[in-house]
Amino acid sequence: MTINIIEDICPVSELKKNPSALIQQVHRTHRPVVLTVNGKAEAVLIDAADYNRREEELALLQKLLVAEKDVAEGRVRPVSDFFAEFRRDKCL
Prior knowledge:
three-stranded mixed β-sheet, 4 helices, alpha+beta, 3 strands, 15% strand
C-alpha cells in the first residue's frame, strides 16, 4: 500500500473540519492518511478492517520468526514422530 503524498497527508485541522470525508477516503482507497501537526507527521488514520488484517499478518510473521529460530537452533523432529505422538495422545 503506497501513500499518495498529495491526497494522503493532511493537517489534523482537516480531520477536525470534516472527519467523515477522511474516513470515507480511507475506506475507499485502503490507504492510510497521515495527519500532521505543524507540518510534522503525528498520527495515521487507517481503515479498521485493514488494521485488523495487518495485525493478523504481524501475528503470523511473529510465529514464523519463532519457528525459523527453532529450525536454526535444531529444535525440530520428523513429522512422522509428531503425528505418532499426536495419535497416541488423542487416541486416534
